[in-house]
UniProtKB/TrEMBL annotation:
The lineage of its organism: Eukaryota, Fungi, Dikarya, Ascomycota, Pezizomycotina. This is Very-long-chain (3R)-3-hydroxyacyl-CoA dehydratase. Its EC number is 4.2.1.134. It is an enzyme of class 4 (lyase). GO terms for molecular function: very-long-chain (3R)-3-hydroxyacyl-CoA dehydratase activity. It comes from Aspergillus ibericus CBS 121593. One of its GO terms (biological process) is very long-chain fatty acid biosynthetic process. GO terms for cellular component: endoplasmic reticulum membrane.
Length: 199
């Protein structure tokens, strides 16, 4: 019988695989769909799916998973700010920007594969080599697309807002993207070397 921990993590990762696949599918099926339509149909799904990921900070902090707490917090916090303080709070900016669709494409491809990888791993089945390679290789392309899109949307919101306090906060966050993205990229490159090297 699987343990309570295994059952929980399997359920959590399966739900997230399906949620991100639900976001990815219309982007793949309708690549020429206008940004406004993408925003209207997928913004609520993306916002709440990403909010669910806050649980991963607790997973790391309590030892439920072996993920490093600081790296997990950094990525989840950055995305949470993006979906709530930018995408949701500035619909007139986000809904018109092609960068929103690019961001969702990068996020949903990466996370559908990532959560599926964990589902297979937790199930105790040997992870197929192709899935492992995708999990630890696609970020090389998807990270720049996702991070660049996030930065652009935040920049547009910074220009749009009339609140100087919000503007100053966004400028501060925009400045963090440089060192933050380098840190995340280096971490994933290191993980890629370890995992694919062992394989």
């Amino acid at each position: 019988m699987p343990s309570l921990k295994t059952s929980y993590l399997l359920t959590y990762n399966t739900i997230n695989t399906l949620l991100w696949l639900h976001i990815l599918t219309p982007i793949l099926l309708s690549p020429l769909q206008p940004p406004q339509t993408t925003y209207t149909t997928l913004e609520p799904w993306t916002r709440w799916t990403q909010t669910l990921a806050i649980l991963e900070i607790l997973h790391a902090a309590t030892g439920l998973t072996r993920s490093p707490i600081f790296t997990t917090f950094t990525q989840i916090f950055a995305r949470s700010v993006q979906v709530w303080a930018i995408n949701y709070a500035f619909p007139s900016v986000t809904s018109l920007a092609p960068a929103y669709k690019y961001m969702l494409f990068a996020w949903s491809v990466a996370d559908t594969i990532r959560y599926l990888y964990f589902v297979v791993l937790i199930s105790g089945v040997q992870v197929p080599g192709g899935l492992r390679w995708l999990r630890y290789s696609l970020f090389l392309i998807l990270y720049p697309i996702g991070i660049g899109s996030e930065w652009w949307l935040m920049f547009k919101a910074t220009v749009d807002t009339e609140s100087w306090a919000v503007k100053a906060l966004f400028v501060f966050f925009l400045g963090l993207y440089g060192p933050g993205s380098v840190m995340m990229y280096k971490y994933m490159v290191k993980q890629r070397g370890k995992t694919l090297g062992r394989a």
